[in-house]
Each structure stands twice: as C-alpha cells, then as structure tokens.
Amino acid sequence: MGSTPPTRRSFLALSGLTALSASLTAACGGGDPGPGSAAGGKVAFAWWNIATTEPGKSLFPQISSAFTAAHPDITVKTTSLENEAFKSKLTAATSSGRLPDVFQTWGGGVLRQQVDAGLVEDLTDALGWSSELTPVSLRPYQFEGRTYGVPYDVGMVGFWYNKRLFAKAGITAPPATWAELLEDVRKLKAAGVTPIALAGKEKWPGHFYWAYLAMRVAGLPALQEAATSKDFTGAGFVRAGARLKELVDLQPFQTGFLGAGYATPGGQAATMGNGKAAMELMGQWGPSVEKDAGADLGADLGFFPFPIVDGGVGQVTEVLGGGGGFALRKGAPKEALDFLKFFVLENESKLLASNGYLPVVKGAESRLTDPSRKVVADSLVRATGFQLYLDQAYPPAVGEEVNDSVAALLAGRKTPAQVAESITEAAKGA
After folding, report:
1. Torsion sign, CA atoms 197, 203, 204, 207
2. What's the pLDDT score for residue 430?
3. CA–CA gap between residue 304 and residue 316 (Å, rounded)
4. I want to staple 376 with a disulfide (CB 3.0 to 4.6 A). Which of 232, 284, 315, 364 is the partner?
5. Are 322 and 8 in contact (CB under 8 A)?
C-alpha cells in the first residue's frame, strides 16, 4: 500500500491552501483543468480523482468506461493523481478559479473555501436522489443546509483491539467509559502488554484522541460553535485535553512512539498487526493496513467505539469520521452529475465488492460480509451524530494546528490549556 495508506491520506485536508486569486479568471499556474465542452451534441468533461492504487486504480476506469459505453456522445477526460500531486494541482486550480468539472473532495474546510469563492456547484436542488444516500455520508459536503458534493465512501474512527491480549490481561469486555479505558491500560501494563500503538511522528493519528474527547466532554454543538466563534478555550475543550493527559501520564504507547510512522516498518500498524500492542485508535482502513504492515490478526481482532466520558455531554453513538466524494465546478455540464449518479447508485455493489469502500446507499450495509467492515458500517448506521476529522473540518491552517498542538501534548511539551489557546490563535488568524 505504500509508505502511507492511500485511504487515510485521502482524508487529509489540502495543506497550505493559498489565498484565492482576486481575479478568478486568471490562468491556472498548475495547468488548465479543461472545462467541459459541448459541440455537435457531444459532451466532454474533466474528472480528477486519486485512483492511483487498488481497488480504485482498476475499478474507476471500469465504471467510467461503462458510463461512456452507455452514453456514446459523452467523453470523460480522466486525470488520476497520487494524493500529494492531486492536492498540489487542485490548490493551484482553486487559486486560479478554474476547477475541473468533477473533482475529488473530502468536504470540510477546503470545500467550504471553494464554495465561498463561488467555484462549486450547489447540488441541493438537482440531487433528487440524495434520499437514497445515508445522511451521515452526505454530512461532510453540506453547509447551511445546502449540498455541494456526492459521497462514494464513508467511514469512522474507533478502537481496534486484540482480543487475545485483552484476555491475557484479564479484560473480559471492551471499556464503555473513559475511566474503564484507563483501568484497562493499567491492567495491560501490569500483564506486560503494550496497551496502545501510536504513530506519533505523523501527528494525525494523535489528533483522533483530542477530537473524540472534545466530542465526548464538550459535545458536538460546542465544536460547531467553536468553528464559528473561533474560540476553543472553553472549559470543555480544556477538560478534554486534561482527560487525554490522564492517558499520556500512564505511558500507554509503544517505546519510541514519538518517532513512529503509521504504515512504515515498525510503525503503528505493524505494531498492532504483529500483536505487540493491544489497541489502536484508527479508521475503518485499520485492519487492512495492519495486515499489509504486519500480520492479519483474524478472529483476534475486535472493534469498539470511543468510550463516553463521565460528566461529559457527548454520546457513544456520535462518531468521528470522513469519506470520499466528488464535487462539480460551477457551471459543469449536467451530464457530469448524471455520471456521479451512475457511479454511486448503479455501481454500489462493485464498490462494496472491491473491499475498499464502505456503503453510502441506504441498506447496502446488509450486503457486507467482512466482519471488520460490517462492524464499522453497522456503527455508522446507528450514528446519531457525525463530526468530520478536525484536520479537515476546519480551514487547513487550523487543522494543522490541531495536529501540531495535540502532538505537543502527547510529547509533554504543551498543557491542555495551551493546546486550546494555540488552536484558538490559529482559528482567529485563518
């Protein structure tokens, strides 16, 4: 899968998004995306995606070919780019005001900037089939009740755990509360087991802890309010950091975690997959990366949602997650939306069969057979609240500060209050 898992990398926000050009008609420094065109009854539109690894590398062209075979007057001009190359190219296109007709998006802060600049098509009224999609999968692409993207994948973060190592420590059931999680960490350490694997070097895995604790302690409304007020110094956010420090003080992570990567040799996924740690907090892609980087835990692998925090306002059915989708540039041909409908609705079975994506169509989760994917999909169906990864939900500079400040807390270089202050400073300056 490469040094960094494509699935998670696709979730990361476009970093370093430059200020939008004052003249939205300026030539694109990163290359002309090529707007859709129509001549003699024929239509052509550009489609940018990140399908450079399997299963998308093979599947996406198959779907595109099937669409054009059924619509011979339509040409889809496909550009598939590796994540970092895609982000750089789309950043340049965004700055010039010339986006491709159909482009990969993960919603959140970057999409919001593109929407605010008037570059993205409002799909709300044209997306009559949105009722066939799960509400949670649409959430990252919605602002003020309007929809600006079409999802094809969705997922969530939770704890993957090694049942055999839990049993070794005398733990008979996954923890339901934060206090129970801390107690289980103590039991695991007493049994000579490393409780948690963490890729401290890459920072984004650590942000999951602070994000979830903010959700559980302060609550989803507090996170939404902070995004508007640009103030994360409220007591709930400081308490969330304090709860995380409780965990850090127990020294639960593997030796050398601050220098560990995620999918690199000896990194978080390998530590978990090789049975050298009992837990990792990771997205639905976790088991496949564990298998590639280490070994397949098979029936020893279990999953549980992030616990509730005593005294907090958040619920266990409120999830942190994200997904993949596509948006349309303002004025894209209507056939481009027809293509997305074909891609998502008529090819959902192919997307699921590839074992690379989780369902966005209502009821499709019942067709999953893989236990790891099914448990995540079932959790998403039961979700009563959804929060996009904070390094995507907010403008790129703010998301980067969340990752950096939480990493500093994990390393003992920042206090919970300093984390909240640093994120607030970044938000006010964004």
Report:
1. positive
2. 80
3. 10
4. 284
5. no
